[in-house]
UniProtKB/TrEMBL annotation:
Gene3D superfamilies assigned: Nucleic acid-binding proteins, P-loop containing nucleotide triphosphate hydrolases, Probable gtpase engc, domain 3
Protein name in the entry: Small ribosomal subunit biogenesis GTPase RsgA
Cofactor note: Binds 1 zinc ion per subunit.
Function comment: One of several proteins that assist in the late maturation steps of the functional core of the 30S ribosomal subunit. Helps release RbfA from mature subunits. May play a role in the assembly of ribosomal proteins into the subunit. Circularly permuted GTPase that catalyzes slow GTP hydrolysis, GTPase activity is stimulated by the 30S ribosomal subunit.
Entry keyword annotation includes Cytoplasm: yes
Assigned protein family: Belongs to the TRAFAC class YlqF/YawG GTPase family. RsgA subfamily.
List of residues binding GTP: 112-115, 166-174
Keyword line: Cytoplasm, GTP-binding, Hydrolase, Metal-binding, Nucleotide-binding, Ribosome biogenesis, RNA-binding, rRNA-binding, Zinc
GO cellular component labels: cytoplasm
Amino acid sequence: MPVGKIIKSLSGFYYVLYEGEVYQCRGRGNFRKKKVSPLVGDMVEFKADNREEGYILSINERKNELVRPPIANVDQALIVTSAVHPDFNALLLDRFLVLVEENRIEPFIVISKMDQLDEKQVEVMENYKHLYEKIGYPVILSAVNDSETMDQIESHLADRTTVIAGQSGVGKSSLLNSIDPRLSIDTDEISESLGRGKHTTRHVELYEISKGLVADTPGFSSLEFSELELEQLPECFPEFVKVQNDCKFRGCLHNKEPKCAVKSAVEEGEISQKRYDHYLHFLQEIQNRKPRY
């Protein structure tokens, strides 16, 4: 049986991409009995006599799965943050990075609106670029109508399935529309409370763009660490992972424990004090989370 990828789910139909053609399929009845629901991004085995009447027979194992937006097998997240209007927010960027790391999705960061900065502000953004690149994250400083920037972003999209994340007003829409006008994410509809706007009812669709697949969805609509456990948080900071085997205690949370390699690395300037402060902020947030029953 052929195996294709679901690129759209709408009104009970699943649209499966296989060898350049899209097949409209229904799910098998036993999916409902098993409480399994095919997701956009799923690799599925299907049977189709023609392009309008197919059936999904089985779903391959997923490498990851997001709830909001409902999508599976994401390779990377394009995190768009602006230098100004709204002002660059490192705490919010780190929150996005933790959510992406939690789901084992590779991020790359685009800092938009660089053309609106003065010389001193440009230097600040370049310092942030250096900080995140040192951790291992690709960072692109983006200006409007900068073809070189667009080429860089497009090269990251090739052969990958990408979701877009970022708060309202950072320029996701104009950035992606300049790459491909079909991907019209109307970010004006997103509320200022980060993802509780009208877009949450829209379906998710993967578009073939720059030789890759890009989700037409404004990205994460919940920025709370509702599923992340305390012990998992350090794993979401790659620079902590590099040194934490040298901590005296296994399972060290890098907070009040003695002989902590992460705290030593912060003191020595090897790990950013800002990033560590944000880590402690998230740690407290998870500790204060109301228990789930």
